[in-house]
Amino acid sequence: MMERLKNRWIALPGNFRGILWITMGTVAFALNDVLIKLLGKKFGPMELAFCRYSIGLLILSPIFIRLGWSELKTSRPAIHLTRLVIACIAQLGVFYSVIHLYLADATAIAFSRPLFTTIVAVLLLSELVTTRRWIATGLGFIGVLIMVRPGHSGFDPVALIALISACTFAIANVLIRMMASTEPPNRILFYYHAGGSLIFVIPTIILWQTPIGSEWFLLAGIGIMTTIGMSGFIRAFSAGEANAVGPMEFIRLIYAVILGYSIFGEVPDYWTFTGAFIIIVSTIYIARDEARGRNRDR
Q1: For 265, what's the count of Cα atoms within 13 Å in the CB-facing half-sphere?
Q2: What percent of the chain has pLDDT over 90?
Q3: What's the mean pLDDT in 192-212?
Q4: Which of 99, 119, 159, 247 could form a disulfide with 40 if both were Cys (CB 3.0 to 4.6 A apart)?
Q5: Rounded mean pLDDT, 283-291
Q6: What's the first-to-final CA gap in the chain, in angstroms?
Q7: Do residues 59 and 141 make contact, with C-beta atoms less than 8 angstroms apart?
Q8: In angstroms, what CA-CA distances link 15 with 25, 195, 247?
Q9: Any idea where the domains of the chain sit in the sequence?
Q10: Whole-angstrom Cα distance, residue 161 to residue 105?
Q11: What is the per-residue DSSP string for the chain?
């Protein structure tokens, strides 16, 4: 029976399988944000980050053990360490912004990551970017300004932390591109999770708040949901085309609005929806422009 189900799954169109995988990933990340916001009332971002990395490492350990040290050993420890530190800083910022902003606001600002990736890729990789893509990036940042509203009475400084975190994660993602020629994905995941666990273990011991009852399961859920989300995204882009699968990620904003309202009573204002719409349209165009560029290079 399992074999028949597997064959039926493989027989589905790649883009359809990719959409199902990324839907699973977006649901997992949305639920993860809810857990972070709930636990953030008691636990600090350091402890939450430690749970995210250590539990993720535990879940992925069978894969790492099967690969063995010969496959995990790297000749580029410096770039792994650089990416690890940058990504860990960004992770703290993301957790802090999810705890203190509306879920919809934190999610929409996180969608600005591809905008920063365009700029970082030009600076670090000397990538050529079309004029239309620059225009789309500029429009995307107008959407960001609409959401953040610097200088306005409704401005929340935490939004800047969310924005800086998006930029920092963009740098970490570009570093993955720089490693891709020699470092397979599982090796990158190993150093990312193992390193993150080591970075946050001492701050967690110092700041330790003992979980009570169901809090143990909720903390474990952060690592579980993050790992499910990452797996869903990796499998999605492996099964389908980026320009078909990628835009489905933005459904996460709908989940954020629904969960934020139903659990925390959050009602985003029209600035959030206006800015988020502009950001989403811009990033979809950037993703499709990048996909067209890759097809021309083949």
Answers
A1: 0
A2: 56
A3: 94
A4: 99
A5: 78
A6: 40
A7: no
A8: 15, 34, 12
A9: 17-297
A10: 12
A11: -HHHHHHHHHHS-HHHHHHHHHHHHHHHHHHHHHHHHHHTTTS-HHHHHHHHHHHHHHHHHHHHHHH-HHHH--S-HHHHHHHHHHHHHHHHHHHHHHHHS-HHHHHHHHTTHHHHHHHHHHHHH-----HHHHHHHHHHHHHHHHHH-TTSTT--HHHHHHHHHHHHHHHHHHHHHHHTTT--HHHHHHHHHHHHHHHHHHHHHHT-----TTHHHHHHHHHHHHHHHHHHHHHHHHHS-HHHHGGGGGHHHHHHHHHHHHHH-----HHHHHHHHHHHHHHHHHHHHHHHHHHHH-
- Ranking 137-151, 179-193, 214-228, 264-278 by mean pLDDT, the lowest is 137-151
Structural tokens at position 243: 């320009």
State CA 84 to chain mean position distance: 14
Residue type, 65: I
Taking the CB of residue 182, how many other CB atoms lie within 10 A of it?
11
Query: CB–CB of 26/251 below 8 Å?
Result: yes
pLDDT at 296: 56
Reported confidence tier of residue 11, pLDDT bands at 50, 70, 90: confident
The mean predicted confidence, pLDDT, of the chain is 88
Question: What would the two tokens of residue 86 be?
Answer: 């940058």
Q: The tokens of 66 are what?
A: 């099967």
Sequence-distant (6+) residues with CB within 8 A of 216 are none
- Please, which residues have CB within 8 angstroms of residue 130's CB and are 6 or more apart in sequence? 289, 293
Average pLDDT of the segment spanning 145-166: 82
The whole-angstrom separation of Cα 167 and Cα 149 is 18
